[in-house]
Amino acid sequence: MIGKKNVVFGFLYLVITASLGPYMIVKMFPDMGAALGEKQVSVGRLQALKNNNFEEELEPLAVDQIARANTSGILALNKVLNSQQPIDGIKGGPHAHGNLEALLNIAAGIALCFIAVAPLFKQIISWVFIAGALMHSGMLFLLNFGMEWAGMLLPVGPWLVLLGLLLIGIAAALGFKGQAVID
Question: What is the domain partition of the chain in residue ranges?
């Protein structure tokens, strides 16, 4: 069964890409949590100052004191945004796309088991799906972990995934059977 490698690859790749969720929680959320705590202190102080007509201990604040409090709040907000950026990069890139492409490989592998076309055509479809996942979400994965060279290969992946979808659509139109096919 030619689609078997796609099903196996899909499940194994899903383990890798899905594990990015716990990785983000363990490695990246502590930094974001610290930044959120710092933001809460700075912005909370600004809120208290505003509620008290910019007085502290019944004394009006000088302009430079208010400016420092505002600057502290702005920088704390910026720190939150900066700590969230790597998390968003992984969530929106290799985590989401990898999970989708893993499931796509599983679906393609199962579909290939029900398509009766030339074995070479099925092998090409099978390998195009695997290569598409590795060249798209796989390169996103490497890019997010600092391997800049992966960005050069990244554009190839989406085209391979689209090619795989086109080829399997053609193969299904030519030879989809209602039962498993022996290659």
Answer: 4-175
